[in-house]
Amino acid sequence: MPHFLDAAALTDLARRAQARAPQPCACTKTPLDGWQSQPLSLDESQFRQIGTLLSEHDPEPTFAEYLPGKTNYWSADAPIAPRFFPYNRCGVWECSSCGRLYLRYTEGGGYFVDHRIRSLRWEVIEDVAL
Q: Which residues are bridge partners to 101 per DSSP?
């Protein structure tokens, strides 16, 4: 299982990644500031998982969401709250070409599976208790 990252470690990792000089990269063709269905143009081979927000000590993470104010699930400014859905089911992935970080998880419904992705930005990470 990938290395578990708590909110402090996630914030530190995101700050360091964002501090690197941004480079043009194919992973930025589609804006991913808020949750998106993973674009088909995204090359899976250029990503590697470097951590997880899914705690092995929490076999049934909550489906409760943390969406204060007027934010919604799809909002670019919605907080990344690691203890809340969907973040508590995410892997942390790095683009091997540019070093940008992304959160990814699989949304499953009765008849569909949707791979979702969002840029990891330290400015919107909130360590909120359940």
A: 94
CA proximity to 102, closest of 46, 41, 40: 46
Handedness of CA 86, 84, 95, 5 (dihedral sign): negative
Spatial CB neighbours of 12, under 8 Å, sequence gap ≥ 6? none
Give domain limits for the chain.
7-124
Q: How far apart are CA 27 and CA 31, in angstroms?
A: 9
pTM for the whole thing?
Answer: 0.93
In tens, the pLDDT along 65-107 reads 999 998 999 999 999 999 999 999 999 999 999 999 999 999 9
